[in-house]
Design goal:
Elements: H1 9-22, H2 26-31, E1 34-38, H3 39-46, H4 50-62, E2 66-70, E3 73-76, H5 97-104, H6 120-150, H7 158-161, H8 164-176, H9 193-201, H10 206-209, H11 218-236, H12 243-258
Antiparallel strand pairs: 1-3, 2-3
Length: 261
């Protein structure tokens, strides 16, 4: 069946060009979007992060290149692949967590010649890398959990499910500090560990998350995350962790992951 022209041919071609320009891996991702596999399975098959796959598929939907069959499952429009050009630019693929960790373990290629003050930052970088890895995995795992429970289209539930104070804080962050690099998918990607905890443990939300958690006691769940927040703040602001904190930072973040099924 040919591509159903909801738009003019010129608009379709323009959308296809914009899509592959914004997402160089978009054509390969869309090719795997068959209406049966959910975005998590596609992420695993193509070795991309789930967040990136979700971002690409939602972009394809907005551009009328794919349709959402049900939460997390998309299907490319019939015939659309023939209009998507091959991108000749260097790919800006979003690496998987395993790739990020492998890269992080490599020694930094930073010259210490004519160092302005000291080489202390370089002495700490290997230790801090552990913290960065854990923070990335934990915060994005919590975001994926929230999307799994409420749906991948955050705009549909953001104002109803999230505390007004967090909605306000995120809005102010977006307005004051717009992110000009890789475009963030939605408001959820502007949240930090403490806010993610508040969304999950909100009185009206907790029962929705309980089936997906090993830890069913809300107070214990909150306390476990609270223990990691000081470390999270130090890591997020690039402040070297003290020896005592470094000793427990991995354990604190692992304890959070253990609470999730």
């Amino acid at each position: 069946m040919a591509y159903k022209q909801e738009l003019s041919l010129a608009e379709i071609k323009k959308n296809c060009e914009d899509f592959v320009s914004d997402y160089p891996d978009g054509k390969n991702i869309l090719r795997a979007t068959d209406g049966e596999k959910n975005y998590e399975e596609i992420a695993k098959d193509l070795d991309f992060s789930k967040t990136y796959i979700s971002t690409v598929l939602n972009a394809a939907k907005k551009l009328h290149l794919a349709e959402r069959i049900k939460p997390g499952i998309f299907k490319k429009k019939s015939g659309v692949m023939s209009y998507i050009p091959e991108n000749k630019k260097k790919k800006r693929s979003a690496p998987s967590i395993s790739k990020i960790i492998q890269r992080a373990k490599k020694k930094p290629k930073i010259s210490i010649k004519d160092k302005p003050f000291s080489n202390r930052p370089l002495q700490n970088i290997d230790k801090m890398t552990i913290g960065y890895q854990n923070l990335y995995i934990v915060e994005n795992t919590l975001r994926e959990l929230i999307r799994k429970v409420f749906g991948v289209e955050v705009s549909k539930w953001w104002n109803q499910k999230v505390n007004p104070s967090i909605v306000k804080e995120v809005k102010e962050t977006i307005e004051k500090y717009p992110y000009h690099g890789y475009r963030r998918q939605d408001e959820l990607e502007y949240t930090h560990l403490g806010q993610l905890k508040e969304i999950i443990t909100a009185k009206k939300n907790w029962s929705d998350f309980s089936p997906y958690l090993h830890e069913r006691d809300k107070a214990s769940f909150s306390a476990t995350i609270d223990k990691a927040i000081p470390s999270r703040n130090s890591i997020g602001h690039c402040i070297p962790l003290k020896d005592a904190d470094l000793k427990y930072v991995d354990m604190r973040f692992q304890d959070i992951l253990k609470m999730i099924k």
